[in-house]
Specification:
With 390 residues, the chain is α/β, with parallel strands linked by helices. The chain folds into 2 domains: 253 residues, Aspartate Aminotransferase, domain 2 (3-Layer(aba) Sandwich); 122 residues, Aspartate Aminotransferase, domain 1, CATH 3.90.1150. 42% of the residues lie in helices and 13% in strands. It contains 14 helices and 12 strands. It has a 7-stranded mixed β-sheet with strand order 1-9-8-5-4-2-3, sandwiched between helices. A 3-stranded antiparallel β-sheet has the order 7-6-10, with no helix packed on it. The longest helix has 19 residues.
Length: 390
């Protein structure tokens, strides 16, 4: 029986009691004013002008890709995608007819390898780059932004598993032209299911709002809404149900947003707890295992603590020991996405030395606010004892 889970719900008894009290006021539950309040408070916390709440982090990525495609700002449909991330960091590129080009993983942060990235930028001159802030460890954003300026690409920033991380005093998720976040169970905080796209670009924000809800203009500000009505000579009676783009229905609800408002209130506490746990793991295990690295001016906020074993045999021994002690573990993220069937059957294997090492030797340890220092020491002892026996 499991004693230590990789993920614990950040929605606790007091959050549920608060939700019950609100529900007893018989509020509107579908998307409404509470969603707008949550979007505004999230934007204030993050430091971005526009934020669009949707039903998952994966939907947030889907919206970013399609808004990028419809923005008419792409010089071509080539896009650099990460080998280490999640399938829905890459899948929309395939679904929307982009030409995805996979990049090796950085040996320090595990994000896009800068040397390989520049080779690909020179060779392909892509219109866009998708960057994942891997496991809450900030990537080398000064270098990425220099490359962005030099090669003129649009940057999508997947910060789904990195809420609370900072690079040189700036929150992760404030560097891309658009950035995605996930509020799934087990991430830094939860709205049960939910995601957000944030941007400082009003044109992109307007596209995101329309695409989230069918392609209509009802969620736009009054001035933009009326401008579209005049542009397309829409009859007033028809105006609420005119579709300007081929959109989706990826809305969340006011119920999820109400939970999110409570989560923002305790986000500082959650971030501090995860950072403390991460530091303790690093002190206990960092000298023996290969772990992610970041510069001293950045702050990590991870949802799990990731390690690379020396080889497959050592990982197998550690995983066996963790399982026998009721400690949940799993592969590091999804390993190398270039080795998964969805990629291989379309483009062939994308095998890279470091991404492959993550794929074959990486594993996760629990990191959530419910863990005590004693718990972290116990888990670390189990891992070290198993590794030293191999």
């Amino acid at each position: 029986m499991l004693r230590y889970y990789l993920a614990e719900d950040t929605i606790n008894h007091s959050d549920v009691d608060r939700l019950i009290s609100w529900l007893k006021t018989y509020p509107r539950l579908t998307k409404g004013e509470v969603t707008l309040d949550f979007e505004n408070k999230w934007g204030q916390w993050l430091g971005r002008e526009y934020s669009i709440f949707c039903n998952s982090g994966s939907s947030a990525n889907l919206l970013m890709f399609y808004a990028l495609l419809l923005s008419k700002r792409l010089k071509n449909k080539k896009i650099i995608v990460p080998s280490v991330g999640w399938v829905t960091s890459v899948a929309p590129a395939i679904q929307f007819g982009f030409e995805p080009i996979m990049c090796e993983a950085d040996p320090e942060t595990f994000g896009l390898d800068l040397s390989h990235l520049e080779i690909l930028l020179k060779r392909h001159r892509p219109g866009a780059v998708m960057l994942v802030q891997v496991l809450g460890v900030p990537h080398k954003m000064d270098e990425i932004l220099k490359l962005k300026k030099r090669y003129g690409f649009l940057l999508l920033e997947d910060a789904c598993a990195a809420v609370g991380a900072e690079y040189h005093g700036n929150k992760v998720g404030t560097f891309g032209d658009m950035a995605s976040f996930s509020y799934y169970f087990g991430h830094q905080f939860s709205t049960i299911e939910g995601g957000m796209v944030s941007t400082n670009d009003k044109h992109l924000a307007d596209l995101l709002l329309m695409l989230r809800s069918h392609g209509w203009s009802k969620d736009l500000d009054a001035t933009t809404h009326k401008k579209l009505i005049r542009q397309y000579r829409v009859d007033d009676f028809h105006s609420p149900f005119v579709f300007y783009e081929p959109g989706f229905n990826l809305r969340s609800t006011d119920l999820n947003a109400y939970i999110g408002l409570g989560q923002i209130e305790k986000l500082s506490m959650i971030i501090k707890a995860r950072q403390k746990n991460h530091s303790q793991y690093l002190n206990r295990l960092g000298d023996y295992f290969y772990t992610q690295k970041w510069d001293k001016e950045s702050r990590v906020c991870s949802i799990s603590f990731g390690l690379l074993a020396k080889n497959r045999s050592e990982r197998a021994a550690v995983v066996s020991a963790l399982n026998s002690h009721g400690i949940e573990t799993r592969i590091f993220s999804a390993g190398n996405l270039g080795l998964h069937p969805f990629w291989v059957k379309r483009y062939g294997k994308a095998s890279f030395p470091f991404a492959d090492r993550i794929h074959h030797t990486g594993f996760f340890l629990p990191n959530n606010p419910s863990l005590s220092a004693k718990n972290i020491d116990f888990i670390s002892d189990v891992v070290l004892a198993a590794a030293l026996r191999t």
